[in-house]
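User: Hi! I'm a student and our assignment asks us to look at how structure tokens line up with a sequence. Could you show me two examples?

Assistant: Happy to help. In each example below, the sequence comes first and the structure tokens follow. Example one:
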Amino acid sequence: VSTLILTCDGYDIFVAAFAAPELVKEWHVAPSALGPFLTASVVGLLFGAPLLGYFGDRFGRKKAIILGTLIYAGFTLLATPATSLNQLMVLRFVAGLGLGGVIPNVIALNAEFAPKRLRAAFIIITQFGIPAGQALGGMVSGLWVPAHGWRVLFLLGGVVPLLLTLVAYF
């Protein structure tokens, strides 16, 4: 489940980049205007990692992972009806808080529960989810955006991790 959550995390970190060309076309904005929107989630990552890392230390890794996943999934889903770059920028920043918070807690949880001799392997396998999710975003973009538009990227980026939080909870 940790690897799947990080796969969704990796997907959501890069989903804005896959939506960007469509936003330029649909909203008639200059590509240079996308900078704040494209970096907002990364800035959120910078703040989310220590905030939810502390939350995980204090209240438990599983709770922090679920909270972080709910944050990034919910705010990614809220991006589907967005009508401006400013809205998307704010939503991506808040989603970035969750995205950043999940990564250190998944690493710590796997390190805490893995047998010592397999600890590194567990962490490496779990972290494989991030680039896998990024690659998945490219595939989804190529297959579904031409038929369904850029909003499908955020819809999937919100719904799938919300479903995974149910699995993680139980």
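Example two works the same way, sequence first and then tokens:
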Amino acid sequence: IIREEIDRTGQIIMQLQDLGQLELKVSGEADINAELTALVKIYRQSLFLTHDISCELKLDAALPILALNCNLVKQVLTNLIKNAAEAMTEGGFIVLSSSDKINQNGHEYVEIKIIDNGPGLPEAVSDNLFAPVVTAKGRGHSGLGLSICKRLINELGGSIAYRRGASKTEFKILLPRKVK
């Protein structure tokens, strides 16, 4: 698994010569439910365990395999799940869900939600949410994670939204429902 992740990340980095000139192939296939399940399996034994985080999967069993680049989808999910877990220094919960056939403006999408009960983003960050920023996370963090997620989702033809409620943080991703 580690070797596969290193190879996948290496391919994306090789293609990200310049953040301003993102040119990635959008072809391939992505099984969203399988990707979410695999990431949870990895994080339950590592990041979730060390941060005392419980995770619930609410996956739409009817979700089809999509004609999208799996590596791009996995990178976005990895960044968002990792961000949520790292923000919860004193434990918490994460809910990952998928839904099929979401209609927006006459187009069909697949929806992915990452919901957590962490502290959310500081107002200064949420004001410029998807722009590269100086991170408050400290050493080992670039502050580019959300801007890269936004660029990758744009390449896939999707959208991403952030919402902070009284007791939860939510990222909602819509990806085109292009069935393989």
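Here is something you could point out in your write-up. Confidence is low (pLDDT under 50) at residues 17-23, 134-143.
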